[in-house]
Give the backbone structure.
Amino acid sequence: MEEGADTGVSSRAERKALVKAKMLRRESEREIFRLVGRALKKPEAERSEEEAAALLLHKDTAEELCQRQVRRSVLKRKQEEVIDDADELKNKIRQLAVAVKQANHLVVYTGAGISTAASIPDYRGPNGVWTQLQKGRTVSSSDLSKAEPTLTHMCIRMLHKEKMVKHVVSQNCDGLHLRSGLPRNALSELHGNMFIEVCTACSPVREYVRLFDVTERTSLHRHGTGRRCSHCCGDLRDTIVHFGERGTLEQPLNWKGAAEAAEMADVILCLGSSLKVLKKYACLWCMNRPVSKRPKLYIVNLQVSLVLTFLRK
């Protein structure tokens, strides 16, 4: 019995010693990072002997901190909005107009940037949702049920009416494409629609289009809206693909329509999106084809697109 007790006390002591050693090692590493970081911020001529010695002794740490700074600088540049001068803008508009006119099967991909004129914040712009959250700021909510389709939404709808746009693939949940009059069969809302709730107990799935936001009670993996189907009394759920989820509903997501449109597209026009999310969906970019056989791509966005390197592979 005593030997077993001694063994237990010994193993606990060893675990405590290991935990303490790990904490001391982490604190030592943090101190090294602080010292090297301070040294790197100073011009070489202003560094103390201790700081110069630290940079020589901890070359790997210095290199890692330099790489982090490069990545931060690149990210900051990508978040900056760039506006072309008047002549360059006119030239690009002419090129885009020719491409739209000559396209046999034009598909439009839209992001949050096309809804900012309706006072709906984007995500990665200077005042975007993710940008504000990264800075530790709160994001104010607004009543999106009062938002009206913007000039961009109405132009897209008119281009579809004139048979110049075949399909619209949207990341937006604000419902403004539908409010513009764009037909449901010409639209894929890949992340859902905050004004639509559905009953999946009914076959086919029964839809309820509301004038109010149905997502007031929903969140990640919690889709119940608290209302019931008037036909079968089943629980209604939202159609939103929350961050970290994969969408499974046929409508309004309409993945089939999006994939078929991409397969037939000879021109893809992307409006108001960094494409950071859309680039993950290879089927939308015809990645199974050689680069020369893929649709021509035109991007209209104030920030650098995050999809270009991916598409050149």
Notes: The chain has two domains: 2-79, 86-191+253-312.
